[in-house]
User: Fold this.
Amino acid sequence: MMDTNPLRDAYRTLLDAAATVADSGAPSPVPPVGEWNADQILAHVSLINAATIATVCVVASGANTTYDNRIALDPWTIERVIARAGGNAGLRDRIRAQGDALCTLGGPMLSEAELDTLVPTLLLSDDTLMVDQPMPLRDLVTGLAEVELPGHTKQLLSLLPDGAGAGAGKAATA
Assistant:
């Protein structure tokens, strides 16, 4: 069984950062040119979560699957998710629920054999190919806690008026 406490902590930290940015008093934190605003970051995270949940569920069902993050980088899809979630607060609620689901699915529900299932993976970041090879499902889940969520937490904090947590570009961890 995989320890999902680091994942739970990473979600908590991301959501705290998102709330801090939303409550910062700035009308709408504006990112540097070419980077995402807070809603776009959260929509991207929501899309990554949805893809990860889907992948976990397919592996648990005994079927073959792939993991591809390109849809989570698509501007039109990101804007559609923002609108459908109802904006920042809705995105934060969605991410909280998705995090709970992944911590449940990625932990006690999956066997070691399922967590070790190789999933053909395609990961891009800022139009750069990062991964194009099979990865164990467990690495996809732990990658959220170790790379994806902390990177987007820094990205959110960089939107604060004082620049606290100055961070990365639009697809720093994609």
Q: What stands out?
A: The chain has one domain: 5-157. The first strand starts at residue 67 and ends at 68. Strands lie at 67-68, 118-125, 128-136. The radius of gyration is 16 Å.
